[in-house]
Amino acid sequence: MRRRGLLAGGAAMLLAEAAAAAPAGLDFRVLRGGSPVGTHSVRFREAAGLLEALSEVRIEVKLMGFTVFRYHHLTTEGWRGGRLVALTSRLAKNGTTTVCEARAAEAGLVLRGPEGEVRMPAAAAPLTWWRQATLRPGVPLFDPRKGIAVDPELRITPAGGGTRVVLVGGEGADVLYDGAGTWVGFATTGEDGSAVRYDRA
């Protein structure tokens, strides 16, 4: 009984340490033209060397009381030792659902999305914004909504003790990280040309 108790106690300590090692969750309000239209949250958990990040975006735009745009994007990523080993992305947009998956393979990373299968280098990473190490020169990037490779120009500059990364090309984005590398801000242009900004909730 004593040995079982020690084993159980040791397992509990390991689980507690794993939970403590996971980054803190992130919560943003999504603003369109200055008005709140949704939320973006990221939750983390870590166990046995695998970091899992669950990102959820919910946006609903109304006009005269009617919903004219509905967007729900759920992405689950698995990272081990700085490498993406698994990803599942499910996007529901105005009644249309698309799914993308990524799995690590011996030769790199295999994406399967609406446009078919794409093979990428092992160092490939998704544009899910929370991970600052993703947005640096030399990292092959892909859009997790479509399962396709993207190659934006990255303009990286210091900003208020942190880092600002501007992506030029495609939809474009302006991403902010604090001095610890935590994601703290985001701005882009919506499909209709409206200004979209994230504020920490």
TrEMBL record:
Signal peptide range in chain numbering: 1-21
Keywords attached to this entry: Signal
InterPro entries in the record: DUF6134
Name listed for the protein in its UniProt record: Uncharacterized protein
